[in-house]
User: Which sequence fits this backbone?
């Protein structure tokens, strides 16, 4: 059989090949039909996918809406980062609010999901501790009814799950004269204590937290502003600090720089600080262990429970009770070689028509989308999937906790996990992608493509590119500006959008498809080697090309469309 290959100098919706080939899942004792509603690149090395699964062969079908991102951890322009609401211990924010506040030139928090469980009343403690960009931003809650698990990203950004985390309550500073002194982190300063205050600290007065951005100390001490030098990872690492200004004595309550820290000493520790001067370098170290192993912890977030280990579902605990029932869920996971990081949300409580899932069902979903290991984050009304430029993608539910919040609006949370674009600022569109990965029209029906534009680093610059050109065979449809009008007849073809030299193509069907039309056949392939993969245009993998149909054939990193006759 001769295979006629069609040129893919334009991108033929390469994302289709990356979709799960499965169109039917087994979850528990039920079979589910799987429909892909949306799939697009949302940032460097990151895609977002939306699925609808519906149980089959049941009198009352169960429907669930799933939203998940996949991030290539080997992409040099993306990092996974924790972020604390308000960047302070006792604050709550929505996931979009956290992203908007954290964004700055060269760092764009472009995709995120809510993370840890938390107390919904003051002082809004997270259940587990949180480390963001190397520094503690949230203490664990003593006496909580959940003993948290953790996801930890080390200094190289490699993820791992841990059951038990130990952070030292004190570390040590070494001063220019070689002497050392123990210090505590983010706490009230008592007699003869040395404290390091980070920007997340909120001082405590009479059991209430306030005075955001200041140490909250009295005047009986010495305080000095510091700036980290090099890698900003405190736990499990020797970190250097530069003294920004000469020390201040007998003042107290120093303002903490947003990009720095304050070292505060009282009593016997004051002498260490009095000797410092602007430009001095001091060194700190404080230990951190995960399941008994020392590690450099750059990002740490709590959750509960771990639901997937090496591809096997972990036993779902019966306590707390909400684990076994259908609820909105959030989760995080990674694949076997830890090269991909997954963030997922499943809607529930009938928000958006989605039923919700149990922990064991969530584990199965995480396995199907590509995870070998996964952990549950806070769910219910907290479940939020956010993408910069596109907004909240899921439909957050409400409960008795959300009397003033309409369904669909995100709830405030204690912290979140984000994919962060770490690339130079560049607003020039270098590549494009059509939002809809397949277009089906009836005769006379019109269609205007929604086109996403990305810079050279893969950052989404515009979710609504204008001024593009549509290319289709003349027999298939007529183009007027950015509007395509379908012709009469039955056709299977493709539509290409071009913008400033960047092109993207998707399958196009008129009246259900029929006669195959292409604008160029520039390559005939007679290579019958078996080292290839075959996909239908909807992304379903097949064992071999289907006669009379268009097949996407992938050979290594390249792909072609092929008509088999």
Assistant:
């Amino acid at each position: 059989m001769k295979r006629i290959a069609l040129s893919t100098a334009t991108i033929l919706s390469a994302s289709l090949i990356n979709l799960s080939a499965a169109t039917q899942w087994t979850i528990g004792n039920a079979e589910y039909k799987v429909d892909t509603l949306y799939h697009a690149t949302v940032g460097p090395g990151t895609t977002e996918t939306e699925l609808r699964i519906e149980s089959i062969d049941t009198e009352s079908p169960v429907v669930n809406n799933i939203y998940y991102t996949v991030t290539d951890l080997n992409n040099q322009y993306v990092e996974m980062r924790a972020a604390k609401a308000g960047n302070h211990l006792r604050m709550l924010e929505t996931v979009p609010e956290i992203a908007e506040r954290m964004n700055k030139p060269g760092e764009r928090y472009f995709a995120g999901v809510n993370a840890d469980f938390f107390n919904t009343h003051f002082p809004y403690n997270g259940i587990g501790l949180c480390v963001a960009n190397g520094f503690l931003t949230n203490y664990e809650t003593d006496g909580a009814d959940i003993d948290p698990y953790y996801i930890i990203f080390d200094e190289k950004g490699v993820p791992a799950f841990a059951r038990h985390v130990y952070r030292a309550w004190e570390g040590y500073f070494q001063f220019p004269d070689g002497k050392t002194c123990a210090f505590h982190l983010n706490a009230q300063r008592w007699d003869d204590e040395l404290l390091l205050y980070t920007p997340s600290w909120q001082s405590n007065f009479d059991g209430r937290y306030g005075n955001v951005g200041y140490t909250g100390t009295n005047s009986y001490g010495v305080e000095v502003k510091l700036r980290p030098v090099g890698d900003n990872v405190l736990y499990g690492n020797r970190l250097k600090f530069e003294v920004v200004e000469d020390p201040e004595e007998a003042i107290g309550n120093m303002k903490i720089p947003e990009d720095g820290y304050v070292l505060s000493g009282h009593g016997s520790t004051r002498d260490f600080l009095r000797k410092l001067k602007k430009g001095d370098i001091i060194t700190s170290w404080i230990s951190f262990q995960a399941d008994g192993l020392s590690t450099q912890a750059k990002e740490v977030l709590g959750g509960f429970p771990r639901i997937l280990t090496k591809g096997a579902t972990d036993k779902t605990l019966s306590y707390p009770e909400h684990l076994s029932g259908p609820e909105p869920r959030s989760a995080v996971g990674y694949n076997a070689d830890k090269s991909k990081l997954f963030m997922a949300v499943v809607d529930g409580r009938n928000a958006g028509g989605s039923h919700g899932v149990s922990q064991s069902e969530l584990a199965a979903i995480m396995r199907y989308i590509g995870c070998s290991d996964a952990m549950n984050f806070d769910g219910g009304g907290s479940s939020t999937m956010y993408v910069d430029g596109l907004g909240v993608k899921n439909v957050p539910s409400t409960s008795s906790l959300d009397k003033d919040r309409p369904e669909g609006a995100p709830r405030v949370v204690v912290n979140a996990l984000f994919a962060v674009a770490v690339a130079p600022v560049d607003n020039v569109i270098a590549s494009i992608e059509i939002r809809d990965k397949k277009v089906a029209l009836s005769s006379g029906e019109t269609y205007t493509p929604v086109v996403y534009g990305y810079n050279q680093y893969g950052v989404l610059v515009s979710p609504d590119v204008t001024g593009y050109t549509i290319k289709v065979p003349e027999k298939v449809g007529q183009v007027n500006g950015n509007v395509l009008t379908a012709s009469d007849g039955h056709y299977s073809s493709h539509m290409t959008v071009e913008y400033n030299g960047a092109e993207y193509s998707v399958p196009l069907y008129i009246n259900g498809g029929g006669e195959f039309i292409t604008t160029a056949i520039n390559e005939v392939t007679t290579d019958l080697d078996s080292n290839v993969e075959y996909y239908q245009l909807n992304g379903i993998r097949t064992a071999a090309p289907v006669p009379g149909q268009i097949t996407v054939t992938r050979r290594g990193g390249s792909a072609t469309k092929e008509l088999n006759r």
Notes: The chain is about 5% helix and 45% strand. The first strand starts at residue 3 and ends at 6.
